[in-house]
Amino acid sequence: MHHDVNGATPVDPLMIAIETYRDGLAAYNAAPDDLPEDAAEELYQRLVGAPYNVLANWRTPATSEETALAAMRLAGREIKEDPESAVAEAMYGAMLSFRRPRDK
User: Fold this and answer.
1) Overall domain count for the chain
2) Is residue 6 part of a domain?
3) What is the pLDDT along the chain (104 residues), one digit of tens a residue?
């Protein structure tokens, strides 16, 4: 787990990836509808596609209960949109692989 610039608060890489994806979806959905097709595709890839790929290829367990729950919530939303979602599969894996300290 990483720490913030002050070294105080642990920063979970999976939580950062989830938040980046959610923020990217929101930003893309807020974009003007009249963008040229090329610009819209570039914007989608930058805001949504790249973060999606990071999450779809995630192979490490969640490192906190908060992150495990965030992964579960994201997986649930993703599976509603696409039953074959690679993000949902990876997030379920991260959540199910999470081990609380008392479980170790």
Assistant:
1) 1
2) no
3) 444 555 556 679 999 999 999 999 999 999 999 999 999 999 999 999 999 999 999 999 999 999 999 999 999 999 999 999 999 999 999 999 998 666 55
Q: Counting Cβ atoms within 10 Å, is residue 67 exposed (0-12), middle (13-18) or buried (19+)?
A: buried
The answer to whether the CB of 46 falls within 8 A of the CB of 54 is no
Environment class of residue 40 by beta-carbon count within 10 Å: exposed (0-12), middle (13-18) or buried (19+)? middle
Q: Classify residue 72: in a domain, yes or no.
A: yes
Residue-range definition of the domain harbouring residue 59: 12-99
pTM for this predicted structure? 0.84
